[in-house]
Amino acid sequence: MNYESEKVLSDYILMHFGEHDQRMPWGIGKLAALDFPLQTVSYFTQKRVALSLDLGCAVGASAFHLSKTSAKVIGIDFSKLFIDTANQLKENGEIDYRYQEEGSNFTPTTAKIPEGSVAANVSFAVGDAMNLPEGFKGFDRAHAANLICRLPDPMMLLDRLPSLVKQGGELVLATPFSWSEEF
């Protein structure tokens, strides 16, 4: 999957920040599948922590949700386009984009950071989840959603987890287990 394309970017912004009726306009389907970034972050306790890591943060919704209970959040993604978009959201609080309804029909809308987020507590950077800097360790929370099945060697990340998450810290791994040949 080309994560640097405008189409994929639009899809991810919609998935992370779109309204329910934009993502599920047909009135059928499981609404519980929506708000994936919030749903995965909700597995953490609500206690305040100093430092959280969001690996594979995409366009940043889960990192913004983590900022509600974290003094500092670092969001890392392999896609420069995703990180640039997350940084624009951080700076402006919102971003205009278009999402595809069907065929060649696109609808303009605006994505806004989640209410209650503390954008100043979030930083975003391009990075490789399998090759994180040695200084990345001792996080109070680590979040990796929709990531593990997209890594060429998931064990590299899994082997690194004990140093990433401090003792007594919290870890949330969430995956659709797509295991695409592409990854």
What number is the mean pLDDT?
A: 89
Distance between the termini: 8 Å
- Overall 3D geometry? globular
Cα-based radius of gyration, to the nearest Å: 16 Å
Low-confidence stretches: none
The portion of residues assigned to helices is 25-40%
Q: What is the number of E strands?
A: 7
Structural class: alpha/beta
Q: What percent of residues are in strands?
A: 25-35%
Give me the number of helical elements. Answer: 6
Order of helices and strands: HHHEHEHEEEEHE
User: How is the largest sheet built, in terms of strand order?
Assistant: 5-2-1-6-7
The main β sheet shows up as: 5 strands, parallel
Chain oligomer state: single chain
In words, what does this structure look like?
There is one protein chain. The protein has helices at residues 6-17, 20-23, 36-41, 61-66, 80-92, 154-164; strands at residues 49-55, 70-77, 94-102, 105-112, 122-126, 139-145, 165-174. 28% of the residues lie in helices and 30% in strands. With 183 residues, the chain is α/β, with parallel strands linked by helices.
